[in-house]
Amino acid sequence: MFSNTERLEYSTGRMEEERIIKLTNKGHAIVVGDIHGNFENLKIIERLFHETNYILLFLGDYIDRGPKQLEVLKSIIEMKTEYSDQVFLLKGNHESNILKPCPHDFDFLVSEKEKSLYELFFEKLPVVAFNNNLVFLHGGIPEIRGKYKIGMLKEKRLEMEIVWNDFNPSLREMFAPNYERDPLGRIKYFSHVAVQKFLKDLGKLGIVRGHQYSLGVANKCIKHVCTLFTAGGKGGYEWYEGIEPCIAIVNLSRGNVCIERLPNERY
Fold first, then answer.
1. Span 20-138+147-157+207-261: which CATH code?
2. What is the pTM assigned to this prediction?
3. pLDDT for 131-155, tens place per residue?
4. Are 97 and 118 in contact (CB under 8 A)?
5. Mind spelling out the 3-state secondary structure of the chain?
């Protein structure tokens, strides 16, 4: 039997994925939004994964706030280790070391050695996945000058906005500073205008993301942007209990996204 530290060292050593990963254009995928330590929802997702044999893609935010963060991490690491070609883990803002979210209670749950190992594991997580039809990420579109190219999304300088930016469908300009999240304005709101340019430049149909339950976008597809939040219902952070936990079933060949509610005890 491996200890948690040994398992983490082994898994981190095997992580060889690039900062952006190309998914298949065939079959289906289960796409999961923020988990935030809700192990009850994760167990439902695991059962669905084994029943369907679909690809399983997590959009990040595994830690902080919820009561079973370590159980969630142990489970997703085990799934990634056993099904490395079927399970994909993206980085969320809570796994990024560029800007600490609040509350950030994960560090109090682990030893200094475990913390260092988890930070190394998080740093190796990709920030974007894509196929011929869709782009998958945690937060949002980064603001750049010129034309978007898929390869540029691997650049470290864009990570903060990719994992932190929020979608504001009523915003008229392409981007605006989000001072609520960052007083320095480094985090942005992006609009449907920015989405149109991003998708046109990359030749894609839509974006599937997590990160956000504000501005009425959670668990909806609005203007080619589908936002998932999976941490709601029972078993998680008390503030999220009233939010329906949802995932998406994605037809990878057609780019169709169907948002489905998890059968959480709360609903």
1. 3.60.21.10
2. 0.95
3. 999 999 999 999 999 999 999 999 9
4. no
5. CCCHHHHHHHHHHHCCCCCEEECCCCCEEEEECECCCCHHHHHHHHHHHHHHCCEEEECCCCCCCCCCHHHHHHHHHHHHHHCCCCEEECCCCCCCCCCCCCCCCHHHHCCHHHHHHHHHHHHCCCCEEECCCEEEECCCCCCCCCCCCHHHHHCHHHHHHHHHCEECCCCCCCEEECCCCCCCCCCEEECHHHHHHHHHHHCCCEEEECCCCCCCCCCEEECCEEECECCCCCCCCHHHCCCCCEEEEEECCCCEEEEEECCCCCC
Amino acid at 29: A
Q: Cα(244)–Cα(65) distance, rounded to whole angstroms?
A: 17
With pLDDT > 90 as the criterion, what percentage of the chain qualifies?
87
Q: For residue 84, with 0-12 CB atoms within 10 Å meaning exposed, 13-18 middle and 19 or more buried, which class applies?
A: middle
pLDDT band at 18 (very low <50, low <70, confident <90, very high): confident
Q: Calculate the average pLDDT of the chain.
A: 93
